[in-house]
Specification:
The chain is α/β, with parallel strands linked by helices. Helices cover 36% and strands 28% of the residues. It has 2 domains: 69 residues, Winged helix-like DNA-binding domain superfamily/Winged helix DNA-binding domain (Arc Repressor Mutant, subunit A), CATH 1.10.10.10; 196 residues, 3-Layer(aba) Sandwich (Rossmann fold). The strands form 4 sheets. It has a 6-stranded mixed beta sheet, with helices on both faces. A 3-stranded antiparallel beta sheet has the order 1-3-2. A hairpin with a 3-residue loop joins strand 4 and strand 5.
Length: 275
């Protein structure tokens, strides 16, 4: 069946969005739509221009006989700022306060639209970074980790607090909790990650960074390398931060339990990453 250009553009766009950072040869599209490579190149130029104008991402052309195109997610600062501001307003709602000064974030992390947008923004910062795996710790950070990984087209590995029979042989390490200063344990299945991987650590909330440091120590057991650290929310009032280099979307600056006031602001995302 011969495709009209409008049909090709729609299907091509959908395919590229579903396969980020994957090299797609021009011959694949040419055979898929029974069209000449010259026509495919013209179509891709239209898609690239539209992606960049709408702040969706960009296409990178790879020359050569085995070349093609790759789609990279790219959220502009203009597109990211309204979302981060909205996220700050949601988190600042005093109804989120729980006994002990904790914040209720489960509804935010359970909202697919919020999580997907946050995942795209974080993935934008690492779109051109070599990443083999996104790592998180069970359980609340899992939705965000998958949202980021889907935009980077890499698998997710989940570090757990205790071993499960279904995980098979595991690697176990002890680490010191940054906030409670207690020795805790985390485990990871030996089958979950290849040796010599480059890993992006993603979590929902970071205080002192003890859990993140535990995951970094876990990487050493797999001879793997840290590619970056990204969190949805960080606690800014921590005196002794165990992690120096990381990316955050929101900073929690103060929690006043007595007056039921939560003070938040945009994280360091816009200071660290420029589009």
């Amino acid at each position: 069946m011969k495709f009209r250009r409008s049909e090709r553009l729609i299907d091509m766009t959908n395919y590229l969005l579903d396969h980020p950072r994957q090299l797609v040869p021009l011959t694949f599209f040419a055979e898929r739509y029974e069209s000449a490579k010259s026509s495919i190149s013209e179509d891709l130029a239209i898609v690239k221009e539209t992606f960049e104008q709408r702040g969706i991402g960009t296409l990178q052309t790879v020359p050569g006989a085995s070349g093609g195109v790759k789609f990279f997610v790219k959220v502009s600062q203009e597109k990211a700022e309204p979302f981060v501001n909205e996220l700050c307003q949601l988190i600042a709602n005093p109804e989120r306060l729980l006994p002990g000064g904790y914040l209720y974030l489960t509804d935010i992390l359970g909202d697919p639209q919020i999580v997907q947008k946050a995942g795209r923004i974080i993935a934008s910062a690492y779109a051109n970074t070599k990443i083999d795996v996104v790592m998180t710790v069970a359980t609340k950070g899992i939705p965000l980790a998958y949202a980021v990984a889907s935009q980077l087209n890499v698998p997710v590995v989940i570090v757990r607090r205790d071993s499960k029979v279904t995980e098979g042989p595991t690697v176990s390490i002890n680490y010191v909790s940054g906030s409670a200063k207690r020795i805790q344990t985390m485990v990871l299945s030996k089958k979950s990650m290849r040796q010599d991987s480059r890993v992006l650590i993603v979590d929902d909330f970071m205080k002192a960074g003890g859990t993140v440091m535990g995951m970094i120590s876990m990487l050493e057991e797999f001879n793997s390398e840290l590619a970056g650290i990204a969190v949805l929310v960080e606690d800014e009032k921590i005196q002794e931060r165990l992690v120096d280099e990381y990316l955050s979307l929101v900073q929690l600056s103060d929690v006043d339990v007595k007056d039921k006031k939560i003070s938040v602001q945009a994280g360091n995302y816009f200071n660290i990453w420029r589009d």
